[in-house]
């Protein structure tokens, strides 16, 4: 693969890239914004959110769901651009909430790291299921800093990155949306998998912040590709016209990135060996 090229520079703290409706979307946590990016690297703010972290996905009707994680809120963006409460996650766990992924039925899976990062003592995290009517319940627990999540195209498997355990964990998805059959999808020792995406060959790309790289791994743990970078890779997304553009969201990590520190966030792109799943 060729060396990644810079598409966007000067983000405060980029995260959560998604390819949707022909554009790259991402969150800038340090600025409290959800952005879109065009092929020339021009950005446009589509939502501003109070609370960290900011992760997002879409309901089947096209409305955006946004996690205002520090406040434990799942917000819904209405057609007029306003943000309305969709679910109260703090009622389940009073610690920061993180990643969200939605399914074709309008269910949203949202995970919580389970403790106050970075100052708090470690506690296991969990995954909640938020139904289309906004009711929420925990459906998985005992996760070591759950981070990126992805559903397989058939909606039958949820994969979760456990950053503090060096593994990707999979669950089967029942007809009612609950999770069962927990198993190790891939052990990735000495790694800290963060944001993830799935390709058409069934492999997962994950960002790794402390090791400053992005890694493609097959089910079972075999490493297929590795891209070394000069700063931490927080997440990745496949997209572009043919689904084979890999977008890497990178930042020089420090807590100051969330509070007005140097804007070291970038989006880098390169051609991937396989297109996005689905």
Report a brief summary of the structure.
With 278 residues, this protein is mainly β. The chain is built from no helices and 24 strands. Helices cover 0% and strands 54% of the residues.
What does this structure look like?
The protein is an all-beta fold and 278 residues long. Helices cover 0% and strands 54% of the residues. It is built from no helices and 24 strands. The protein has strands at 5-11, 14-20, 23-28, 33-37, 43-48, 54-58, 64-68, 73-77, 83-88, 97-102, 108-112, 125-130, 136-143, 146-151, 157-162, 167-173, 179-187, 193-198, 204-208, 213-217, 223-228, 232-239, 245-251, 265-271. The strands form six sheets. It has a four-stranded antiparallel β-sheet, with no helix packed on it. Strands 2-3-4-5 form a four-stranded antiparallel β-sheet, with no helix packed on it. Strands 6-7-8-9 form a four-stranded antiparallel β-sheet, with no helix packed on it. Strand 19 (204-208) and strand 20 (213-217) form a beta hairpin.
Write the layout of secondary structure elements.
Blueprint (H helix, E strand, L loop, with lengths): L4 E7 L2 E7 L2 E6 L4 E5 L5 E6 L5 E5 L5 E5 L4 E5 L5 E6 L8 E6 L5 E5 L12 E6 L5 E8 L2 E6 L5 E6 L4 E7 L5 E9 L5 E6 L5 E5 L4 E5 L5 E6 L3 E8 L5 E7 L13 E7 L7
Which descriptors would you attach to this protein?
278 residues, mainly beta, 4-stranded antiparallel sheet, globular
